[in-house]
Design goal:
The chain is built from 10 helices and 10 strands. By secondary structure, it is an alpha/beta fold. It has one domain: 2-enoyl-CoA Hydratase, Chain A, domain 1. A hairpin with a 2-residue loop joins β1 and β2. α4 crosses α5 and α5 packs across α6. The N and C termini lie far apart (42 Å).
Length: 264
């Protein structure tokens, strides 16, 4: 368990590789305000870091990569404006992470949910352990993922598969993640980080102009449609917080029943 006084986000450097660790295993590396603010400063620094060629992102604790940001209980305890501000700020952070000059590798070394999955999607590539799972639970709460998931996921797994994962909220295991292209490879859990670091060292040994150039060209190819989708996402997600369905999900959670959504 991490010391509560230790940084919420750890940054370590190995030669040309920067390793970023979400460091709140006691609450499953929940994507809360503390984590958001700590991660913002790390991403800001990446844009100016000419020594780092590769970034590896992982979660501490071994069981969870990041268990998202909201559930009905957390959401119900927050002011609606506060929720929207945090969602939009997190979206801008992922937009910024996506365009850092370094190649970003997400090592999903455990369970990821909601905002945790969206953080992984803002990275250039993803590796997983054989114990990793992902899920988007927002539809169960009458909501839309607000961290860029609906905008980025179709380019990774295809339109129909993206809608399947976003609208069903079903749990996806390691084998399926690799099969549908969400992750490049799955490794045995105990050696997963070692395998990812080995790959990171290979990329870090290449010419930085070549690696950064390939990333910039690839992103430029996808950027126009992504920007439009992100704009629509922010608009829809902002309005969502004042709907009947969101309030119903919070009430249903408090009353221990299934929500009765009306589409209002």
């Amino acid at each position: 368990m991490a010391d509560a006084k230790s940084p919420a986000v750890l940054v370590e450097r190995e030669d040309k590789i920067l390793v970023i660790t979400l460091n709140r295993p006691e609450n499953h590396n929940l994507w809360n305000r503390e984590m958001l603010l700590a991660f913002e400063s790390v991403v800001d620094a990446l844009h100016k870091d000419e020594d780092a060629h590769v970034v590896v992102l992982k979660g501490s604790g071994g069981e969870y990569f990041s268990w998202g940001a909201f559930d009905p209980a957390i959401r119900g305890a927050m002011d609606k404006n506060e929720v929207v501000e945090m969602v939009l700020r997190g979206s801008r952070l992922r937009d910024s992470l996506e365009v850092v000059p370094q190649l970003t590798i997400c090592a999903i070394n455990g369970k990821a949910r909601g905002n945790g999955v969206e953080l992984a999607l803002a990275c250039d590539m993803r590796f997983i352990s054989d114990r990793s799972t992902i899920e988007f639970p927002e539809a169960d709460m009458g909501g839309i993922p607000g961290g860029g998931g609906p905008a980025r996921l179709p380019a990774v797994v295809g339109h129909a598969r993206a809608l399947d994962l976003l609208c069903s909220g079903r749990l996806v295991g390691a084998e399926e993640m690799v099969r549908i292209g969400f992750a490049l490879a799955a490794f045995p859990h105990d050696r997963m980080i070692d395998e990812v670091m080995s790959y990171a060292r290979i990329v870090a040994s290449k010419g930085p102009i070549a690696v950064r150039g390939a990333k910039k060209i690839s992103f430029t190819r996808m950027a126009p449609g992504l920007r439009e989708a992100r704009h629509v996402s922010d608009q829809l997600r902002s309005k969502l917080e004042w709907t009947h369905d969101v309030d119903e999900a919070i009430r249903a959670h408090k009353e221990g029943r299934k929500p009765r959504f009306t589409g209002r």
